[in-house]
Amino acid sequence: MATHSEALLDFYGGEVLGEAVYSAPVAAGQNEDERLKWGTLLQLETETKAWLRAAMVAHGVSIAEQTADREKGIAIGEQFKTLPWMAQMQGLHDAITGDYLPRYRSHADAAQARGAAAEEAVCRYMVEHEQAQVDFTKRELAGEGSRSLEPVVKHLKYPIQR
Q: Which CATH number fits domain 4-153: 2.60.40, 3.30.70, 1.20.1260, 3.30.420?
């Protein structure tokens, strides 16, 4: 069972990685719609990373970004940008549901077991953050691209406008 400090580091590293992953396809998008969607996902990662910093500092956790997280994200992003759109969506869906959602849920469950409501709230938000991206990919894969960003945009303070 991870400590809350370990969970915060995991979340933060995920956001750093996510920013790097989403940066490559946003630049390589085949059209304005794809660039907007990747840009909105990039915005989600950036805003969430900034939001996490307050909790991290409050728990004495360093907010320094790890180069390894960014480099791993860049490598993944470079692979993603070469794939067709639906393969990108399936890959993103599989990565989040196979790794991030289960891991983040375990952090939330650990916080709940400790009876730490404030910690659990941070963890549950991160689960919702990942679920929003899964919901985006599900809508894209189902051909609902016109409303795919709705679950993501509801988490943004500064949504990107066309």
A: 1.20.1260
pLDDT of residue 108 exceeding 80:
yes
Residue 162: pLDDT band (50, 70, 90) is confident
pTM of the model: 0.95
Length of the chain: 162
Give the integer Cα–Cα distance in Å for 71 and 25: 15
For residue 126 the two structure tokens come to: 């991160």
Phi/psi for 95 (5° steps) reads -65, -45
Q: Dump strand ranges (E) for 1-72.
A: none
Q: How far apart are CA 133 and CA 43, in angstroms?
A: 12
Got the DSSP string for 113-135? HHT-HHHHHHHHHHHHHHHHHHH
DSSP letter assigned to residue 30: S
Picking from 120, 26, 37, the residue whose alpha carbon sits closest to that of residue 73 is: 26
Residues 6 or more apart in contact with residue 56 via CB below 8 angstroms: 8, 9, 12, 62, 63
The distance from CA 70 to its chain's CA centroid, rounded to whole angstroms, is 13
Cα–Cα distance, 18 to 46 (Å, whole number): 9
